[in-house]
Amino acid sequence: MGEIEVAGDLREVAERTQGHVRAFLSTTTQVASGAYPGAELSLLLLATSDLLAAGAQLAAITDVVPVERFEPDAGPDTDVDPLRAALARMFDGFDDYVEVVDPVLGAEAGPATLSGDLAAVVEELAKGLQHYDEGHELEALWWWQFSYLSSWGERAASAVRVLHGVLAHLRLDVADDVAQEAEYDALHS
Question: Contact at 8 Å (CB) between 171 and 74?
Answer without folding.
Answer: no
